Amino acid sequence: MQKKLVTSVGTYNSYRIAGVQGRHFVQTRETAGVAKRLVRDSIEAMATTAKAALDKIESKLHTGFLGSIHTSVKAARHASCSAWVH
Questions:
Q1: Structural domain boundaries of the chain?
Q2: Checking DSSP bridges between strand 15-16 and strand 6-7, what pairing results, if any?
Q3: pTM value?
Q4: Which of 48, 56, 65, 80 is deepest in the core (most CB within 10 A)?
């Protein structure tokens, strides 16, 4: 049996971490009554910070690092950051 990490955000409160998108936090914001601009700014800041952190790690990888791993992580990062801000 494979265990999956889920989080409680959005309308249904049972999303797998990899499936969480910015809109789920917007849905939670509506329930909690938090200002829309605060949530939007926070989502954009998280996406920007995540991208910058991963770019920094990428710049420090040694030349022998497996290209397939790097390509996979970079693709996942791009998809994840894009999903958060749209």
A1: 6-85
A2: antiparallel
A3: 0.57
A4: 80
